[in-house]
Model the fold of this input.
Amino acid sequence: MTDKPLLRVLHGEALWPPPIWLMRQAGRYLPEYRAARAQVRDLVVAFTSPDLATDITLQPIRRYGMDAAILYSDILILPWALGHGLEFRESVGPVMPKLRDQAGLDALEPAGFADRVAPVIETVRRVTAALRDHHPATALIGFAGAPFTVACYMVEGGGSRDHAEVRGLAYRDPALFARLIDRLTEATIDYLAWQAEAGAEALMLFDSWAGVLPPTLFAAYVIDPAMRIAAALRARCPGIPLIGFPRLAGSQLAGYAARAGLDAVGMDTATDPVWAATAIDRRIALQGNLDPLLLVAGGQALRDEALGLRGALRGRPHIFNLGHGIVPETPTDHVGQLVDLVRTA
Ligand code: CP3
Done:
């Protein structure tokens, strides 16, 4: 068995103080990240360069010693590796072709998938070795985007405000949309299994846009794929803990937690942790959910809210985190203060 605090909580133990890591902990708020990125302008190249990606994954661990490292990659590497184009444009974000019909689905190239993700799997191997040698209490989290959120970017051709195109397609051509979700579900199972086989000790599914769906579509395209992914991974990688994060799901988080078959669920910033603690079975760990803007503000507000959140979930399995990713404006000192504060007995 393991001594790593993150894994103990994922196996159902309530630890005090709780383990902590932060979404987007390897990112632009860190000067060493900006320096590393200055060498490689193209983000897809950065995500698929094992030397650089290993170094960036470990940056926040060296600085703050979090309980988890999260692989430096991106949820859009999966569609890219399926042969769907991807470009990260400065101050625009990700841009992709728009997949709106069967021809778009047929254009995917699943045959090249394993080769294209090979550098990411190599990064998992290298980070695993580095943690074993230098940070033995820190666990490595591998991840993928959940099929619905990845489909959002593929159908919209990038980020979107209202996700009208993706919801429109799901209503207009449910058979095509279901085939797209199926293809992504199959690829996600392989991709996560490969990460686990290379050393990832927990796996997380990011469903950032789950909350734009009404209950019928939420069941079909958020809960059902999560169930299929969890069941397949239980069979292929027995014992690996699974975390799901259906962001902005609101009260649908409870049904997701009850049915998806995961070990932990992430709470976004708007979720009341006291509600989640009663609505969700105690055997499922809760992860989250401090407002990332408190980490920018710092001071008394940060202290009060962080200690309040920690105290509210005392006695049940909880992984301290933010409700969404760290924003680039975050002062590095505030991150260190938060880690120290959460770890004070
Ligand atoms: O959390 C981590 O430190 C691990 C790495 C990670 C990244 N992206 C690196 C990244 C993870 C887990 C993600 C997930 C991701 N990517 C999500 C789900 C979580 C969420 O934020 O809702 C989504 C929706 C994406 C898609 C994505 N990637 C967008 C919209 C953007 C551009 C916006 C932005 O912040 O610049 C990215 C780029 C990206 N992925 C960056 C990082 C660190 C910014 C990189 C840079 O400019 O150097």
In short: Strands lie at 68-70, 87-89, 93-95, 139-145, 202-207, 242-246, 264-266, 285-290, 318-322. The first helix runs from residue 5 to 10.
